[in-house]
Amino acid sequence: MFYKMLMVLLTVISIGLPNEPETGKWRWAEDTLQPTEDKQVHAVGSFGLYYLFTSKGMTKGDAVNTVMWLGLFKEGIDAFVPWETYGSYGGDGFSKNDVVYNAIGVGSAYLIDRLWENKGDKNKSAYIEIYPRHVRFSIYLD
Known about the structure:
The chain is mainly α. The protein is built from five helices and two strands, in the order H-H-H-H-H-E-E. The protein has helices at residues 2-16, 37-55, 60-80, 83-86, 96-119, and strands at 126-130, 135-139. The protein has a two-stranded antiparallel sheet. Helix 2 runs antiparallel to helix 3 (60-80) and helix 3 (60-80) packs antiparallel against helix 5 (96-119). The protein is elongated, with a radius of gyration of 25 Å.
């Protein structure tokens, strides 16, 4: 009796479980725009990468393009490499919503960078200018 119940249970479980996804077969992620931890990591990571690239001499436009292409590349890996088999090296499919969060992160970094740049010296109460033969310290009191 126990053996028959076990066989029925295993049969029901095996029918109900999906097959392991194949490596190299395109998959779309079934996710939403809900701000899950994964989505927040995409936004914050893109934000940080933008500032990393610009601090290393890359132009703002090139930094935005590079971050977006890296995000698309990672989503391509997620589409073809199943996390069920390869863990964190893979993903659950190509997520257009992850790409949206990448754009939010890099877009907000770019916007902050531009707004900050446009303020220039107007908001500085103290700054240092370095010239070949002298250094100027300036302090503005309101």
